[in-house]
Design goal:
Blueprint (H helix, E strand, L loop, with lengths): L1 H14 L4 E7 L2 E4 L7 E3 L4 E2 L4 E4 L4 E6 L4 E4 L4 E3 L8
Antiparallel strand pairs: 1-4, 1-6, 2-3, 2-5, 5-8, 6-7
Length: 89
Protein backbone atom coordinates (compact mmCIF):
# COMPACT_ATOMS: atom_id res chain seq x y z
CA UNK A 1 0.00 0.00 0.00
CA UNK A 2 2.77 2.46 0.94
CA UNK A 3 4.55 1.73 -2.33
CA UNK A 4 1.35 2.46 -4.28
CA UNK A 5 0.91 5.79 -2.47
CA UNK A 6 4.53 6.76 -3.14
CA UNK A 7 4.17 6.07 -6.86
CA UNK A 8 0.86 7.96 -6.91
CA UNK A 9 2.54 11.04 -5.45
CA UNK A 10 5.41 10.78 -7.92
CA UNK A 11 2.93 10.42 -10.79
CA UNK A 12 1.01 13.47 -9.54
CA UNK A 13 4.19 15.53 -9.36
CA UNK A 14 5.12 14.47 -12.87
CA UNK A 15 1.76 15.68 -14.22
CA UNK A 16 2.99 19.20 -13.51
CA UNK A 17 5.47 20.81 -15.82
CA UNK A 18 9.01 20.62 -14.44
CA UNK A 19 10.56 23.96 -13.51
CA UNK A 20 14.14 22.71 -13.67
CA UNK A 21 16.42 19.81 -12.89
CA UNK A 22 19.36 18.73 -10.83
CA UNK A 23 22.63 19.68 -12.50
CA UNK A 24 25.33 18.42 -10.15
CA UNK A 25 25.26 16.50 -6.89
CA UNK A 26 27.96 15.79 -4.35
CA UNK A 27 26.80 13.45 -1.61
CA UNK A 28 23.08 12.87 -1.09
CA UNK A 29 19.92 14.93 -1.56
CA UNK A 30 16.22 14.20 -1.28
CA UNK A 31 13.04 15.68 -2.71
CA UNK A 32 9.53 15.64 -1.30
CA UNK A 33 7.00 16.38 -4.02
CA UNK A 34 3.89 18.48 -3.40
CA UNK A 35 1.26 16.40 -1.67
CA UNK A 36 3.82 13.77 -0.76
CA UNK A 37 4.55 12.56 2.73
CA UNK A 38 7.95 10.99 2.06
CA UNK A 39 11.20 12.33 0.70
CA UNK A 40 12.83 10.28 -2.05
CA UNK A 41 16.43 10.37 -3.30
CA UNK A 42 17.20 13.17 -5.76
CA UNK A 43 20.04 12.92 -8.24
CA UNK A 44 21.44 15.06 -10.99
CA UNK A 45 19.24 15.13 -14.09
CA UNK A 46 16.06 14.52 -12.04
CA UNK A 47 13.31 17.01 -12.79
CA UNK A 48 12.09 19.32 -10.02
CA UNK A 49 8.61 20.81 -9.74
CA UNK A 50 6.91 23.77 -8.09
CA UNK A 51 6.30 23.11 -4.38
CA UNK A 52 9.08 20.49 -4.17
CA UNK A 53 11.08 20.47 -0.93
CA UNK A 54 14.76 19.78 -1.54
CA UNK A 55 17.08 18.70 1.28
CA UNK A 56 20.77 17.91 1.39
CA UNK A 57 22.43 15.63 3.89
CA UNK A 58 25.75 15.89 5.72
CA UNK A 59 28.72 16.72 3.46
CA UNK A 60 26.40 17.16 0.47
CA UNK A 61 25.69 19.86 -2.10
CA UNK A 62 23.31 20.06 -5.07
CA UNK A 63 22.98 22.57 -7.88
CA UNK A 64 19.61 22.97 -9.60
CA UNK A 65 19.16 24.73 -12.93
CA UNK A 66 15.75 26.27 -13.56
CA UNK A 67 14.18 26.53 -17.01
CA UNK A 68 15.32 30.09 -17.64
CA UNK A 69 18.90 29.35 -16.55
CA UNK A 70 18.89 30.41 -12.89
CA UNK A 71 21.25 28.23 -10.87
CA UNK A 72 20.40 27.44 -7.24
CA UNK A 73 22.97 25.77 -4.99
CA UNK A 74 22.06 24.15 -1.69
CA UNK A 75 24.91 23.14 0.59
CA UNK A 76 25.07 20.54 3.35
CA UNK A 77 22.12 20.03 5.66
CA UNK A 78 20.09 22.62 3.79
CA UNK A 79 16.40 22.79 2.94
CA UNK A 80 14.82 24.66 0.05
CA UNK A 81 11.16 24.86 -1.01
CA UNK A 82 10.52 25.71 -4.65
CA UNK A 83 7.39 27.63 -3.78
CA UNK A 84 7.05 30.01 -6.70
CA UNK A 85 8.35 30.06 -10.25
CA UNK A 86 7.43 32.73 -12.77
CA UNK A 87 8.89 32.43 -16.25
CA UNK A 88 7.50 33.82 -19.47
CA UNK A 89 9.69 32.91 -22.47
Amino acid sequence: MASFLLWSVIALAQQQEPIGQGATLQGQATVQHAGGTQAVPLSSQNAVYREDIIQTLKASKIKLVLLEGTELTLSERGTMTLSKFVYTP
